[in-house]
Amino acid sequence: MYAGVMKDKSSVNRLVLENVSHSYGAVAVLNHLSLVVNPGEIVVLVGPSGCGKTTILNLLSGHIEPMSGSIQREGVIRTVYQHDGLFPWLTVLENISIGLRSLKDATQREKELRELLELIHLEGFEHHYPHQLSGGMKQRVELARVLAGDSDILLMDEPFSALDYQTRLRMRHELVRLLKERPRTVVFVTHDIEEAAQLADRVLVLSNRPATISHELQINAQRPRDLTDNAVIEAMTAILKELGLQTSDRNDV
Amino acid sequence: MIKPKTSESQLASVAMRKGSATLRFLLPVIVILCVLLLWFFISYINLFPAYALPSPVAVLKSFKEEMLAGRLVNDIIASLWRVAVGFVIAATFGIPVGLWLGQHLYAKQAFVPMLNFFRFLSPLAWIPFAILWFHIGDKPAIFLLFMATFFPLALATMSAVATIPSIYFRVAKDYNYKGIELLTKVTFPAVLPQVITALRVSYGIAWVVIVAAEMVGCQDGLGYGIWEARNGLRLDSAVCYMIVIGVLGMGIDRLLAQLTKLPNVRWGYER
Questions:
Q1: N- or C-end of chain A: fewer Cβ atoms within 10 A?
Q2: Could you tell me if B62 and B173 lie in one domain?
Q3: Which domain holds residue B27?
Q4: Looking at the complex, does the CB of residue B265 fall below 8 Å from at least one CB of chain A?
């Protein structure tokens, strides 16, 4: 069982949305959206607020079913939430161990728990409860939980948007470091363009509701990327342009 | 880089809320002494006849008398036993019923009006039935305590379930919590802080009801003690029982308050 955790699963974990449409009542949220997330890829979805980013994540995780179109999911999918995703009645260690529920062997689980705790640099905080931690620490515990054991695909729903700016910058590097140690397929939803430019292999810019993919941007630069790296600035420029937020566009308007 | 969450403003507000330790102890003592002095004064000037308002000295004397006779201790044990049994039965049924109602919309819609009806029906209204069905002794008192505490406990637990943030259930679903495990590992711990508060409130109700229940349904207990004192026109003894009831009630509430210090429920009180 445990050997399976270690093996390279990247060949199987694919996410495919095909021609998916969804609406809440009369409000059409997604309009014939197609999307393929390749194994091991970090895909970042950016778009105006209320454009249906969270709906896409809910479809990918299986929390809701699409009204039309099809979805293929392979592998274990887990979500990192914006905040309050940890159970407040459990300690840091107990929260992480939720991610290891399928691991039956107690000594293996203990070993894996210690490793994860070390990975997120929270040794000494294992018996703290979430309300005793800072926002950044809580999100790191969430990251440890989704990375634990046999997960394949991580869905991230604006995981750093509730943090202060500096912590957010730090958490991006933290995420890159963690994904280097434990590679996963990632679908990351954010309204933060910097975040997209620093983290993504591929940025998908969504249109206003009903959402379709209005622009696709491949970023090939190595990670970790600094905010001031050329590749990051180039990517940000391209995304801002697409969203109509670049001042140089004013001349065209 | 790593620091636990305690900002300066939080520290300041904690200091403000707790105040000085000496004052916290001293202030209530002063108030109690003032009330005692007032009582002394009123009985000293004979504002009321001694049989209608016993003096503190007379009460102290009767306290000694009751202790020596062993009656007071016996009554305390009888009352505590009844409250404990009635309360435990009510909690054993009330909390699971509340959890169940909280999770099933149709059950909730079906049962809530009925439960509310019984909650607002004073448990003392059941006295005639209690005595007719269970005669005299522990049973009618326990029945009345159950009727007094089951409904508020079930309803409070049910409302608590409704306030659980939906994100906990989403996380639970992500990690395959189902059925009984979902109930015991997610739903129950999520409502536990509110359930503890409900337990304290309904214990308060129980402690009030036991006095009335024992006045009519029992041959011993603190409530019966007061009734006996009235019949013998021994109000000094009645006051002595009243003091014991008040002090015991407070003491047990302090014990229940210890539950809020459990590490896995602290989050519910620190938001």
A1: C
A2: yes
A3: 1-47
A4: yes
3-state class (DSSP) for residue A93: helix
B133 touches chain A (CB under 8 A): no
Strand duo A68-73 + A202-206: pairing: unpaired
Nearest CA in chain A to B192: A89
Rounded to whole angstroms, the maximal C-alpha distance in chain B is 74
B261 touches chain A (CB under 8 A): no
Is B266 near chain A, with CB under 8 Å?
Answer: yes
Size of interface A-B (CB pairs under 8 A): 63
State how far residue A116 is from chain B, nearest Cα, in angstroms.
Answer: 16
Cβ contacts of A86 within 8 Å, gap of 6 or more:
A95, A130, A138, A141, A142, A145
Whether residues B114 and B13 share a domain: the answer is no
Q: Give B166: exposed, middle or buried? Use CB within 10 Å, 0-12, 13-18, 19+.
A: exposed
Number of structural domains, chain B?
A: 2
For A134, the closest of B4, B174, B175 (CB atoms) is B4
Contact B167 A81 (CB under 8 A): yes
The answer on B58 and B40 residing in a single domain is no
- Inspect the interface and report whether the beta carbons of B189 and A128 lie closer than 8 Å: no
Sketch out chain A's domains with CATH numbers. Answer: 2-245 (3.40.50.300)
- State pLDDT tens for residues A50-64: 778 888 888 888 888
Please report the pLDDT score of residue A97 as a whole number. 93
- Pairwise CA distance, residues B104 & B245, whole Å: 40
Give A152 to chain B, closest Cα distance, Å. Answer: 13
What value of ipTM does the predicted structure carry?
0.86
Q: B12-67: per-residue pLDDT in tens? A: 666 666 678 888 899 999 999 999 999 999 999 988 888 889 999 999 999 999 99
Q: Is A79 on the interface with B (CB under 8 A)?
A: yes
The alpha carbon of B70 is separated from its chain's Cα centroid by a whole number of angstroms, namely: 26
